[in-house]
Amino acid sequence: MKTSEKSGYQKKTQKDYSLSFKLQLVEDIESGRLNRLDAHLKYGIQARSTITQWLRKYGTFDWENLSVTTMAKTPEQRIIELEAKVMDFLVIL
Fold it and tell me: 80 and 74 in contact (C-beta within 8 Å)?
């Protein structure tokens, strides 16, 4: 954060999050491992509405009909998930 010397004001800066981070966070929330507030506090995401936007964009919940649907994952999403699993496996070794 940037701090003004005279007033002590700290300007918050926007963070950029990777697609894999967003997808993992959405999966954790949808599976019940985290809730939105816990994710907001744990990862220091500035606005809770940011997480809601990610859930709407990347999640499986049908916001228009207010129901859970199973959507086919894109090849990119599947690759990211598999890479994350491989990295988790390598960390264990």
Answer: no
